[in-house]
């Protein structure tokens, strides 16, 4: 298995997890362009991704989501409350009652069916006239040319087409090629990856972390960031993990003295905020089972943490448990991808 952290921190998060046959992207918190750039640097082929999984709807986890999903034409896995919160966030002027939400889901289904039908017609004509230039190829699927939907819609002046479900879809920034729902606490599979989502305490609609295990290997990898504290369900989810991406968000002193307004400091410190270096160290010293070959410290705050402080704090906690083997501590970066971790 392989984990490639493309970006981690308060300004954007994205990580590729791959088994022998399956590759998923967890969160898409940078622009599509930047995500593509990071994947190229890290030697991760975007075309080989099977799905995007979303932990929660905060911008540092979804900034590039719709453009990337449409470009790659891959499904997005959310919990239903997270999907709804994301749609609401993308359409701030619309009041999203539950009835409106159901209407949205239905419309999206119809738009997907219309797109699929249009594609089928196009691929039919492609096969009957192999030599003919395909004038519709680049507009057959949203985001195909990496441009925004608005451009695709604006380029089409025909009012009749404007009103078609396909044109309406192109204008809708929340349209995704396919959406799948999961529930925290219930395992699901994508290809040969088994995914165990677990609920995390954080101020979002339905936030979660993930444990990944491939069918062929007995390697387990976990992503646990955006946690106000470590409740028992998270501690038990993080047993027997070989590669653990764990939040180490802030240094308590730096946060207290730092630039954030008082209310934001309270939010970060709260039980639905983020894990401090100290909280992470306490977990590593007391509750952690010591099973990981690699512990990757992630979601570091640029304003309220220093990489050396997070590293020192975690290493010191592990050092006190002298008998541990493995447990190499790495620091995930905000500005560049980390070398892929392969086990
Ligand atoms: Zn968050
Ligand atoms: Zn975050």
* Main sheet properties: 7 strands, mixed
Query: How many separate helices?
Result: 13
- CATH superfamily membership of the largest domain, which one? Ribonuclease Z/Hydroxyacylglutathione hydrolase-like
* Content of β-strand: 15-25%
Q: Largest sheet, order of strands side by side?
A: 6-5-4-3-2-1-14
The CATH topology of the largest domain: Metallo-beta-lactamase, Chain A
Could you list the spans in which at least 5 consecutive residues all have pLDDT below 50?
128-160
Radius of gyration: 21 Å
User: Order of SSEs, N→C?
Assistant: EEEHEHHEHHHHHEEEEEHEHHHEHEE
Derived from helix and strand composition plus strand pairing, the structural class reads alpha/beta
Mean pLDDT, to the nearest integer, reads: 88
CATH class of the largest domain reads Alpha Beta
Domain module count = 2
DSSP helix fraction:
25-40%
Terminal-residue CA separation: 5 Å
Number of strands: 14
Q: Can you give a write-up of this model?
A:
With 343 residues, the chain is of the alpha/beta class. The protein has 2 domains: 2-91 and 178-342, Metallo-beta-lactamase, Chain A (4-Layer Sandwich), CATH 3.60.15.10; 98-171, no CATH class. It has helices spanning 32-41, 59-62, 65-72, 80-90, 98-128, 149-154, 159-162, 165-171, 232-237, 252-257, 262-269, 277-286, 307-319, and strands at residues 2-7, 14-18, 23-26, 51-53, 76-78, 179-181, 188-190, 193-199, 208-214, 220-224, 243-247, 294-298, 328-331, 341-342. Strands 6-5-4-3-2-1-14 form a 7-stranded mixed β-sheet. It is globular, with a radius of gyration of 21 Å. Bound molecules: zinc ion (2 copies). One zinc ion (ZN) binds at residues 13, 58, 60-61, 226, 299.
